[in-house]
Amino acid sequence: MKSPALALLALLVMTGCTTSKLTPEHADPVPANRLYGFTQKVGSDDAKITVVRDGGAFGSGCGFVVHIDGKRAATLNSGEVASFYVDPGEHVISVGLSGIGLCSAIDKTTEFVASQNQKRIYRLSTDLNGFYINPYID
């Protein structure tokens, strides 16, 4: 009798330690006071970069700070989405925790080449091993 109950408890604990994937349409927009840059299209051929953070309780106490080319772009909380504009060419997007209290860790970084008028979506997720920034896949 103890084994099935223990297995169920372990499953519930592990399920609570991951985040839930959200589509950009179902995520809440980041409030304007947490958008710091890259929010305006400057050139007619700028690429649009959308970053969506998973929903769920795990890791929700820490904001994720997004940087583009080393400049702070936004802070995303759980279940939020923000879009940014960059000129065509090579760029670096990085994500780190807000750095407050227990919310500190090494940034995760990825490089990308933006094409003219391209649209890219990135997903921010969390599990027991840390947090990730990856291309969004339906």
From TrEMBL:
Residues 1-20 form the signal peptide. PROSITE patterns: PROKAR_LIPOPROTEIN. Keywords: Signal. It comes from the Bacteria. The keyword Signal applies. This is Lipoprotein. The lineage of its organism: Bacteria, Pseudomonadati, Pseudomonadota, Gammaproteobacteria, Pseudomonadales.
